[in-house]
Amino acid sequence: MSEGVRLEESWKAALAGEFASSYMAQLKDFLKAEKEAGKWIFPKGSEYFRALDLTPLDKVKVVILGQDPYHGDGQAHGLCFSVLPGVRIPPSLVNIYKEMESDLGTVPPRHGFLESWAKQGVLLLNSVLTVERGQAASHQGQGWEKFTDAVIRQVNELPHPVVFILWGSYAQKKAAFVDAKRHLVIKSPHPSPLSAHNGFFGSKPFSKANTFLRDHGMKEIDWRLPETV
């Protein structure tokens, strides 16, 4: 995509056809033009595919779908809902932590850095992988959605069952083709303060995911986050 961009080998092989496509060439040109125009793009180039780098295809156990990267300084680093250490925890993630505490009895951490989930097999995938600084949804419709549809298709076709956690109508529509007979699809309203009280709270996605993994002979996710990162 650009200088410094890297991608984990299993994903690189699985998505080779996407990278060779005309829409990805157009997306690359768009990003190059944006940068040449002096626009700040989040996250940095080496982190566009951070979610895939941390969670190889055959290691995916859970998928959590987001929409766009955070567009504030120092927030986005390639994992949906996650922010870098030292950055204020966004409101939706505050509510995710509240539901974790209710569901699992975990103590909410004082940071919003979710890499430990990704390293255990939780694919923290945004639908769109870049954004212009301060401009929410500014890179929608440029090709990323088609690329991340291909990512979800690859996971859907894995030989082992996977948990898909779909918060909000956007995520639910995007992953509507997932085979719910083979995989566990958990749906609820989005954790945003605007919708969390409409059924997100009390939905128990974390314990449901672990029960499913355990029942299928897979190691559960330790949703507790380390206090120091």
UniProtKB/TrEMBL annotation:
InterPro entries tied to this protein: UDG_fam1 (IPR002043), Ura-DNA_Glyclase_AS (IPR018085), Uracil-DNA_glycosylase-like (IPR005122), Uracil-DNA_glycosylase-like_sf (IPR036895)
Main location group: cytoplasm
Reaction equations catalysed: Hydrolyzes single-stranded DNA or mismatched double-stranded DNA and polynucleotides, releasing free uracil
PROSITE patterns the record matches: U_DNA_GLYCOSYLASE
Matches recorded under SUPFAM superfamilies: Uracil-DNA glycosylase-like (SSF52141)
EC number: 3.2.2.27
Origin: domain of life: Bacteria
Gene3D superfamilies listed in its UniProt record: Uracil-DNA glycosylase-like domain
Gene Ontology molecular functions: uracil DNA N-glycosylase activity
NCBIfam families, per the entry: PRK05254.1-1 (NF003588), PRK05254.1-2 (NF003589), PRK05254.1-4 (NF003591), PRK05254.1-5 (NF003592), ung (TIGR00628)
Annotated protein name in UniProt: Uracil-DNA glycosylase
Organism: Rhizobium aquaticum
